[in-house]
């Protein structure tokens, strides 16, 4: 079932079991279909599309970091309020699911947003940040100096093993920062997985996302 809320859309693929976990993911529409087909019926999937990626998914404003790229608007808090306060409750009510818990997953900037949301709301108990943009200016410092919400049980972090092979001064720190955060979460007693996949940032995005989701719903 698909619903439009403002300019954004949310499509829910309900499990046959109405109490199955609900995983929320910000993605393109085609990716959502592929992820749903690969995941199967053990989980309900809510796919949000028509997102303003550089604005909705970034925690604070930042200059462009890529040649010919756009700056980042830093509207994640506004978008998170819409997502948790209106979009997810509406979709849950309309589809009749009653999930045991709600998790969030995402790839690239959506992976950054997924992990950031764990600091800003108690709605999600499990997080998968797949090839997450944890290089984002100031994010690692923020994560190390703020507390996660009290409900976080499992965190999955992954990267491609070639993502650090870049001249971009932000991107080349992503592996160090991601691994450092995974260690920190483990020390906090959170069940945490850090995984390096073969390839660069743009390879096997759906497959890596499915792998991350499957791990957090174990």
- Indicate the CATH architecture: 3-Layer(aba) Sandwich
* Fourth CATH level, the homologous superfamily: Alpha/Beta hydrolase fold, catalytic domain
Q: Return the CATH class.
A: Alpha Beta
Any idea what the radius of gyration is? 16 Å
The domain count comes to: 1
Strand content: 15-25%
CATH fold title: Rossmann fold
- How would you name the oligomeric state of the polypeptide chains in this document? single chain
Number of strands: 8
- Structural class, from helix and strand content? alpha/beta
Low-confidence stretches: none
Q: Rough shape?
A: globular
- The DSSP helix count reads 7
Report strand order across the widest sheet: 1-2-4-3-5-6-7-8
Tell me about the biggest sheet?
8 strands, mixed
Order of helices and strands: EEEHEHHEHEHEHEH
Distance between the termini: 25 Å
Structure keywords:
single chain; 218 residues; alpha/beta; Rossmann fold; 8-stranded mixed β-sheet; 7 helices; 8 strands; 37% helix
């Amino acid at each position: 079932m698909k619903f439009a809320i403002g300019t954004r859309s949310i499509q829910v693929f309900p499990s046959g079991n109405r109490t199955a976990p609900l995983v929320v993911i910000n993605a393109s529409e085609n990716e959502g279909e592929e992820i749903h087909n690969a995941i199967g019926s053990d989980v309900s999937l809510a796919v949000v599309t028509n997102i303003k990626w550089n604005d909705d998914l970034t925690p604070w404003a930042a200059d462009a970091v890529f040649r010919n790229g756009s700056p980042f608007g830093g509207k994640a808090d506004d978008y998170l309020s819409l997502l948790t306060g209106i979009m997810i409750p509406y979709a849950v009510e309309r589809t009749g699911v009653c999930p045991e818990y709600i998790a969030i997953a995402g790839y690239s900037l959506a992976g950054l947003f997924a992990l950031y949301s764990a600091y800003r709301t108690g709605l999600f108990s499990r997080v998968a940040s797949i090839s997450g943009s944890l290089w984002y200016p100031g994010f690692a410092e923020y994560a190390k100096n703020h507390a996660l919400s009290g409900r976080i049980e499992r965190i999955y972090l992954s990267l491609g093993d070639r993502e650090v092979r870049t001249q971009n001064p932000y991107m080349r720190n992503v592996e160090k920062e991601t691994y450092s955060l995974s260690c920190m979460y483990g020390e906090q007693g959170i069940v945490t997985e850090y995984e390096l996949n073969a390839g660069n940032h743009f390879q096997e995005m759906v497959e890596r996302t499915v792998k991350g989701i499957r791990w957090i719903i174990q």
